[in-house]
## 1
Amino acid sequence: MGNSKTKLKEMFKKIFTWCYFKNLLLNPSQLLLVSLLIIVTELVLNILIVEKVPYTEIDWKAYMQECEGFLNGTLDYSKLRGDTGPLVYPAGFVYIYSFLYLITNQGENIKLAQYIFIGIYLLQLTLVFRIYLKAKKVPPYVLILVILTSYRIHSIYVLRLFNDPIAVLLLYVSLNFFLESKWFLGSLFYSLGVSVKMNILLYAPALFFFYLVNLGLKLTLVQLLICGSVQVLLGLPFLISNPVSYIKGSFDIGRVFNHTWTVNYRFLDSEIFENKFFHLSLLLIHVLLLVVFIPMCVKYFQSYCRLRYVQKQVQPQIDAKNHEKKKKLKMETKLKTGKKINEKEVITKEQEEFLTSFEAMLKKSSRKSVKQPVSKPTETSDYSIDFDILTQLFILPMFIVNFIGVVCARSLHYQFYSWYFHSLPYILWSNNFSTIFRFLLLALVEMCWNTYPSTIFSSVTLHICHVAILYGVYKKMSNELKTVAKLD
């Protein structure tokens, strides 16, 4: 009992120190505890928002009206309408919101829907934190400040009930599966995200090359077939009924947005905003930016692929090394305690020489391959290489390609902030800006999205921030690749 109390006191002394607290806030590898605290705080905060802040009706009733038509047997997309106009989302949206229609008493129990969206938000946060924890890029205090203080994001998720958060949730599910090399599940959930809202296709250029680099052409075609099959199966009832109206309604890339709701182009006249040449110009800029960034993204993916291969080769050897070390420690413990040693547990001289040479090989391999030193074990610790950090080589290209799509969007409505909000800290900490300037950009972006209705100043400021962020990432990626090229 005395020893237990002493250890407990020592643990509390360690925790309640400035050094420990500082490390907890600044060290990206300590995000696990901080993320748990953020999620608990968000649970309480979102419940308070739902209970204290009035719900604002925007699209929920229209969603319910569109799904009511489907539940009544209408399969012709051109006849599925709500107060805000025709149904413009793919079939996955119809099924999900039809389910919400049924469990919320035909959409009347809005409070229940809000609590469901709290669950959606917390689940997405968990998936976001899992990526950030693996990448070890962003200090925990940044996520505390950014996530807990965003008025607009909390509004989008629990006060508006848009379909954007559901699409983004499915996207983050897929990203987590891709990080585990679970290709089928990753493709499945990616396509499910697209089936809720078409904006998830903004990730498609990066994902295509990620497939190609990791899997080769044949298996890439298999993954594309999975993605396409999901869309066909979900849309099958509508495709059979009226294929033209379904494809035109759910995947209408030529749809003209209402200038009234734009966040990013308030400074343009409505005539210019709706002009086809303006839309084509934005599309051209989008393509040009992809042409600039995709080659860099491919190099990141190639490094990711090579180092994952190294992991597959080295990890079993590390495990074997740790297993032999445990056997050796067990033998030494028995020697100290005077217990009889099983002859099979004794390490031979040849085995000991192998372990010594293998240790040297691991250290050499780690320096060349992953730039993460093999941790020198203490008497009780194990050898390890932190391969999770390779996440950086996958997630930045995915985030930046989506960000390019946001920058070049024909119009951004307020709910579209959810498309890239949770990736912004990662993108900003992937450039060489000072911490103060990063926070300034985050604050300005948040200010622009909180300005309602949008103004010329807020729209222009948002574009300036987007361009600055994009340029910062371009410089960082290009400099890193030049450095790697010189080393090679």
## 2
Amino acid sequence: MSTKPSLVKVGVIGSSHGIKGFIKVFTEGDTLSSAKPPLTCTVEDPRGNQSTIQIDEIRPNGNHFLLKLKGFETPETVIKYRGFSLLWKRDELPKPNSDEIYTEDLVGLLAISKETNTSLEYVITQVIDNPAHPILELKPKNGEGETVLIPFLHQFVGDWNLESKTLEIIGWEQWFEV
């Protein structure tokens, strides 16, 4: 039995676009560029409530995509989805390249020091969306101690290994200096 989530966040819905009911979606990958509408997917509001929508059209538009949702014909009707997450079924996603990972796969990995290759006794509990880059939330494995937030950038995070369930952290001590 898999412990991976069956739905993976592929984007965040932004504002409406134009007068025909299109809505902007900002993504970190290219999932939408390979999708063939019409298709049904899930959206989740900031409180975690989910609903299903049907996408009738997908258009690339600069740094985002435009979606046309079935039954939504005006800007006023689609705006209710602003700020919602767009979720995709894991088994319908393209397989990541060897140097890529879905951020959901990081949750549960044990942090290890890149310098010493030893356990830091912290586990990744969440990947937080941030406009600049994702942020990793790490909590002590034993439940006692402070939460640590680390930007998911190459200068702070090394390699991951899904088989050994580990993620390298670079310069671990710096996250406790205040």
